[in-house]
Amino acid sequence: MSAALRHWLGKLRASSLDPARVYAWVGGASILLLVILVPPFQVPDEPQHFYRSYQLSTGELWPKLENGAAGSDLPASLPALVERFLGTTEFHTERGLRTAQLQETLAELRRPLDAHSTVFVDFSGSAFYAPLPYLPQALAIAGARAVGIGPLGLFYVGRLANALAAIIATYIAIRLLPVGRGVALVVALLPMTQFQTASLSADGPTIAAAFLFTAIITRFLVDGVWTVGRTVAAFASGLIMCSVKFVYIPVLFAGLGTLFGSSAPSRKAWGGVVSSDPQCYEIRRRPVLRS
Known about the structure:
3-stranded antiparallel sheet
């Protein structure tokens, strides 16, 4: 076998096993399948996230308070949809899986929204969550409402938009990471990570934002480069990461402390030189000269 052929085969093998590409194909495909196959509202607190996403899609940012509950005046067809699939609109109660014929589910897709018939809906668990992690869902639901899609269609459109945004952000993060991409891939492919990413929950964008923020800071520690694009991405991902999950705030401050240090870490501190090839994230160690 010629040297050129061996080199080409080596590059082909390396590219096919690239963690970012593995995530895009394997993780992306499985998440999109979960979007469709997981029954509506079977993800924890998904009804509350659905209500909050719909509220934000109308441009309403803050909840209403009524009888000690936080929520909003939403179309009555939304809680009715939840009750049809869960058998109750109570959030924290025992409920089993209900079986339904496929024809029944497809019939729900034809049910109209009837946005003018409203009722106060309590979603205190998510009513005060920051809008940013709901941006993909809210924008998608707003567009779907404009073309007359019904409640179940809005639910699936929101799920799909949420999943796609998280998949893209996670893919970029794994691709950007200079080290530990295999570990990041394993975490991104964990069943719970995928389950949450395939839902309307704010956890999907939050997890993806945490991946991206960590990747940007780690990349800076290696190459010492801080661009406008990285600044915007780090600011946005850090804001999304901490706006709902306050436990991530120490991670945010740790990253910002690195940025505002006296100087960028030198490559020598990492014991090697980073390849100038933007497609290569391998840290190559300096050869040791011996006498």
